[in-house]
Structure formats: C-alpha cells, structure tokens
Design brief:
The protein has about 700 residues and is of the alpha+beta class. It contains 17 helices and 36 strands. Helix 1 crosses helix 8, helix 7 runs parallel beside helix 17 and helix 11 runs antiparallel to helix 13.
C-alpha cells in the first residue's frame, strides 16, 4: 500500500510540474483541422485561466486526495485483482503466433499458452481497427458505439468524413492585418459513443493508465491518465501527409498520402537549396510555411540542415532526431510541431523525405491527452515522441519514397518510444489498470505480407528493391521479448492479457464493388463520364440505387435520407438489400474461379442499438486474399471488378471476420466458450467489483486462478 501511494504521488507530482510548464508563455494554443484555420486563444486569457485553474487545484488538492483515497479504498476492497495489465498488439495473428511458438521462436508467449491461456479472440463486423478497438473499450457492438469504418458518408453530399472525430475552429474570427484568427477553443467532438470501461472503473475509484488505444481522440476526462491513439491528426489536420523534396523538375503527384515539393537554389547564399514545410491553413485557408535550407558538406554523404535558427547534420539513409518546427499564426502566436528528415541522395539530384508534422506533445496545439499535462509530462521525461495516430508512414513505402529498410527503421523508432512510455506507466500503476496498444504489429504485416507468399503480385512489383523477407517474423520475436519484460515486472496478483483486435491475411486481389454495381445496373455515370474521379464525382445520383464507400460497406441511395435518394424507405429498400446480398454472396474471381466475397449481411443481422442508422446498409465479407480495391474505397467506378494489388500494402484484415480472429493470451486460466473482443470490458469491470451496465453486449470471462 505504501509503495502504491509513493508511486501515485510521483505521478501526480510529475503532472503538476507539467501543468506549470504549460502555464509558461511559450505555448501557442493553435490548431488546424480539415478545412479550418488556426484556433488561437488570447495568450493573456490562456495564462490567466491556467493560473486560476492551477491555484484552485492547489488549494483543493488535499480535500480531493482524501475523497479519492476513500473511494479507492472501497473500490479495491471489492476487487478480485490488484492490477490488470493489457498489452494490445494490433493485428497479431493466431496462426502466425502458433507457427512461431511451435518453432520455439516465441518463448514468452508460449509460456503464457502453456501455463495460462491462449485462445482465438473473435473480432467485429467488420474487422477494422477503429471498429474492433471501439468494441474493446466499450463492451458493445458497433450499433451502440457508432464506429463502422475509418470513414463515414455524409448523406447530404455523398462525401466521406473521419468516422471518429470532428474538428473545426471556434466559428468566431478576429482580423489583425493580413491575419484572420479564430477566437476561442477549437470545436472537437468525439463521434464514438458509449463510455470506455476505464471511465466506469474511474467512477468507482479505480485508477487506469491508458496509452495509445485507438479511437480515444479527443481525450475524455476520467480517473486516470490517457494518451490518445489512432485518429490523432497531424498539425495540418490530416491523418498523415509526408513531404518529398527534390531538386529535379519531376512534377508527378503521388496517388495518396504525400506531397512532392521542389527544392530551389538558396537565394541568400547561392549555395545549397531552400525549401519550405507546409503548415496549417490560415487567413482564409492559405498555408503557413516553415522555411529551411540544405547545404552539402565536403563528404558526399552528409549535408547541413538549417531550420528555426538551428543547424543539424543529415547523414545519408539515417533519420534525423525529432526536429522542432513552428508556423506563425499571427502576432505572438505559433503552432508547433515535430518531424524527422531523411536524406535520400545528394547526386545527381538532392532528395529529402520529411515525415508528417506531428503535434509537439510538449507544447500541444490541442489536447491529445488527459489530463492535458500528461503528454507534456511524457515529453519532458522521455523527449519528443510521435503523436500522430497513424504515425508509421505506410504511404511513404507504398509510393516508393521509403524502401523496406527505412520504413522498418521508422517503425522501430516509434515503437521504442511507445515501449518507454508503457514501462513508465507500468511502474507507476501499481494498482488498477495499465493498457497500451502497440501499432507496429499491424503496420509491418500490412506492408511485408508480400514476402510470405511466393506469387503475391506485390512481391513481383517490388522485386528489384532491397527486401526484408524476415520482417514479420522478427517483429513477432520483438513483441515476444516485450511480453517477457512485462512478466518480469508483475506478480501473481496481477492479471496480464495480451490481445489483438483481429488477425491478418493476404491482400492479393482487389474487388471494385462500385464497378460491379455499375455493370449490374445499380449505379449510373453522368453522360460522358469515365468513372475515374474520386468520391463519386462522375456518378449520376438520379439513376443510382446503391454505392460502395469505405472498406466493407454498401449504402442504398434512399429517398429522404441521401440528398438525391431514389429508393423508397421500407419495403423497397429491404428488397434491394436482399437482392444485393443474394447476388454478391459467393461472387467469384473470373481469373481463378475462387470466391472473392464469402457473404454479404443486412446490417440488421449484425448490429443492434441506437446508432444503427449510421451504418452501411450492407456489410461485405471478403475471402482470404481479397479486399476492397483501392479505387472502390476512394469512390472510383472505373477499372475491372477484380484486379491485382501491386502495392507494398499487401496484407490486410478487412475481410470476413470469421477468417481473422485476434489473439488472447493470459497468465491465468480463462474459461470462456467463445471469447470475443467485446468481452474484455465486462471482464475488467467484474474483476474490480464494478456492476456491469445493462447495455453491455459482452460477457465477463471466468478467470479460475484469481
């Protein structure tokens, strides 16, 4: 008990110190969301409010601590376990784990299997990370938490939006010279519904440390600390935009995820090159920019980067440290971020890759943690770290800007940061719940599955590049070692769970459902249109009955719901859904005769709850080796129904959920007929003696040795 109190005091002391750091006048409270300008608070008002808040917190601290102590004492008296540790490995696959455990390559996971539990863990419809992790943390099906994909569609204009959060400026603006500044806090709204189980534990007095669990942005208040994960934007409001600089005159644009920019001769010195990093929009949407220069050294493998008044040495093929950048929002206000540079070549042309500009966790432009000071605390403790939700730049590898080695190096740089903050939280959370999700398992399998199959189209497309055929296996070995370190730091009174949200399979062939809908008379194009433009720009909605958007969904173009809907709600809509389910189930690939679509579900058969109306009308389940084609996901209609996937992104899980269960490991015996990811939340509440809410869909597992 005394050890717990000391650790809690250390944590709160660190957070209090970080709060004081936040109150210094170096912070620019600015943020840019998609299509929004800066949301800038008055510096004086910010500091004054921060001062009053800190003063109030200091005065009331003894009373609050006494009340919390009494509540925690009552809570832990009801608990069957002092501490629960959940290690999330996004996408860890039970078949691969079994193979390498049997070969003796994963000794720590094998020990959990032999002495505790190893089971397949049923995932969600569809098995997409934001959907599955939302079910993990809420204990309910998507019809009750409102997340069905990365994207949702706006029925008013047929365009997509991020399904998990909405961000915009305050709506009030102040003109200062050339600057147009929003006044007040940015409007941030979490679109995921239902409370996370750690909120319910906190209400009962149980403390939780939660690190990088997807769909926790913007962060919610609860009794604990949290660093947001998947769907935290970069400083420009996107989900990750990299920059590729070259002194060549090439102008071809990237298909997704990146911007090609030209390096110009340095106009000041006449030596080297100059460029600018695009920043958040301002003054009616125009970008702010952060200038930099590059100058080669005598050595043919180094150059000097000068940015923000600082000089850094860039070495060929090596990532720089995190470099601070800032963007002027107006007089006295700046939005601050961090990024890494990678020098790719100096001759015949200079080429430099720059990561997406992450929000600086030490001076966050918007809240990415709870409390706000927690991200600052971690930054002061560990140094700058990646904050972008999808921090590993898969698009950089897809576009050929990164090769296998540079992508892997980036992944492990980010992973090392995650490990450090996780073990810090594990040390400081002596009682309660400690959770951390590691993304590298998902990203490496997405990008290197092509090497697990001899005839994968993507392996042939990248045959001339340096190859890392052992990347997935070595990553599993690394995760096994992490589990071993965790087990060294826990005792028998601690429950350890290792879980994944889904497994993995090959993505060798894409299925363009929009093209199928066109060919079968359910979707129509405008006169003369080719169907090659994104987001249904070529679609004639007055003649379209249904359309596919996202990774696993089809929507009916329903009257009085979609802007130009033509299908009557009720009987006509249900008849169309039944017809499409029947025709698409068992859809075969003409190139091989293999089934590409295993089954199509009416949403009413897989979802229930108050938010079902926001889901796709049909849920598509693909077979092994198949997934929605890139063109279909982007709302294009052109191309073949079935086509090869030649991208480095060669593995996936957005298929039939019955084919990609996740993993469940535990250091204790778990009795459950068919464990599912929806069961984790009720199991945590039951272990700590908290009554389960009536709306839960999951069931608490029986853990026999506790």
């Amino acid at each position: 008990m005394q050890r717990t109190v000391h650790k809690r005091k250390a944590l709160f002391a660190g957070l209090a110190a970080a709060t004081l750091i936040l109150a210094t006048p170096v912070v620019a409270a600015a943020y840019v969301g998609p299509g929004a300008g800066f949301a800038v608070l008055s510096s004086f008002l910010t500091l004054f409010i921060a001062f009053l808040y800190s003063l109030l917190a200091l005065v009331t601290w003894p009373i609050r601590q006494l009340l919390r102590w009494r509540r925690r004492r009552r809570a832990y008296q009801r608990a069957r376990v002092e501490r629960a540790v959940i290690v999330g490995f996004d996408g860890m696959d039970p078949e691969l784990a079994t193979r390498w455990m049997d070969e003796g390559k994963l000794p720590h996971l094998a020990r959990l299997r032999d002495q505790g539990t190893f089971r397949k863990l049923a995932t969600t419809f569809p098995p997409i990370s934001p959907v599955a992790w939302s079910t993990f943390l809420t204990g309910v099906n998507p019809g009750k938490h409102n997340i069905y994909d990365f994207l949702a569609r706006n029925p008013a204009n047929y365009l997509p939006y991020l399904s998990s959060a909405q961000i915009g400026d305050s709506g009030r603006r102040l003109k200062i010279g050339k600057w147009s500044l929003p006044i007040g806090r940015p409007k941030m709204r979490l679109l995921r519904k239902s409370k996370p189980f750690w909120n319910l534990l906190g209400d009962a007095g149980v403390f939780s440390s939660v690190l990088r669990v997807p769909i926790t942005f913007p962060p919610e208040k609860f009794q604990g600390v949290l660093l947001s994960g998947m769907c935290v934007p970069d400083l420009c409001g996107s989900q990750g935009t990299f920059y590729f600089y070259s002194s060549s005159t090439a102008t071809n644009a990237f298909e997704e995820g990146g911007v090609r920019l030209r390096l110009q001769k340095n106009p000041k010195s006449g030596r080297g090159f100059a460029g600018t990093i695009p920043g958040p929009g301002n003054n009616g949407g125009s970008e702010t920019r952060c200038p930099f220069t590059l100058e080669a050294r005598d050595k043919k493998s180094e150059c000097v980067l000068e940015i923000e008044g600082q000089r850094y040495t860039l070495r060929m093929g090596e990532y720089s440290e995190w470099i601070e950048v800032s963007f002027r929002a107006g007089r006295g206000s700046r939005a601050r971020g961090i990024c890494r540079f990678l020098l790719k070549q100096l001759a015949p042309d200079v080429e430099v890759y720059v990561t997406p500009v992450n929000i600086d966790p030490r001076r966050p432009a918007l809240p990415i943690s709870h409390p706000l000071s927690y991200s600052v605390y971690l930054g002061k403790l560990l140094g700058p770290y990646a904050t972008l939700g999808l921090a590993e730049d898969t698009w950089g590898l897809n576009e050929g800007v990164l090769d296998d080695n540079s992508f892997l190096e980036q992944c492990y740089l980010i992973h090392d940061e995650r490990e450090k903050m996780f073990f810090d939280a594990l040390e400081k959370t002596a009682r309660g719940v400690c959770i951390c999700v590691f993304d590298i398992t998902d990203r490496v399998q997405h990008m290197f599955w092509r090497y697990l199959e001899k005839d994968h189209p993507a392996a042939e497309a990248t045959a001339g590049a340096p190859q890392r055929r052992d990347a997935i296996e070595q990553m599993y070995v690394r995760m096994d070692a992490l589990v071993g370190r965790v087990m060294e730091q826990v005792d028998d009174k601690t429950l350890v769970l290792v879980v994944s949200d889904h497994g993995f399979q090959s993505f060798a062939r894409g299925v363009n459902l929009n093209r199928w809908l066109l060919d079968n008379g359910y979707l129509a194009l405008k006169d003369g249109a080719t169907g090659t433009h994104d987001w249904f720009a070529d679609v004639d909605w007055s003649k379209t009955q249904a359309f596919a958007m996202g990774l696993n969904g089809i929507y009916v173009n329903q009257r009085n719901r979609e802007r130009d809907g033509i299908i009557e709600p009720g009987k006509d809509t249900q008849e169309l859904i039944r017809e499409l389910c029947a025709k698409l189930t068992g859809l075969a690939d003409p190139a091989s005769g293999q089934v590409g679509v295993t089954e199509v579900f009416d949403r009413r058969n897989v979802y229930n709850g108050p938010y079902v109306d926001g889901s796709p009308d049909l849920v598509i389940c693909y077979a092994r080796g198949y997934r929605a084609a890139w063109e279909s996901v982007k709302g294009q209609v052109a191309g073949e129904i079935f086509s090869d996937n030649n991208k480095a992104w060669s593995g996936d899980h957005c298929i039939d959920p019955r084919l990609v269960p996740g993993v469940l490991f535990s250091n204790h015996k778990i009795e459950a007929a068919a464990p599912a990811i929806v069961d984790v939340a009720p199991t945590m509440l039951e272990l700590f003696g908290v009554k389960l809410p009536a709306h839960f869909d999951g069931k608490a597992w029986s853990i026999s040795t506790l």
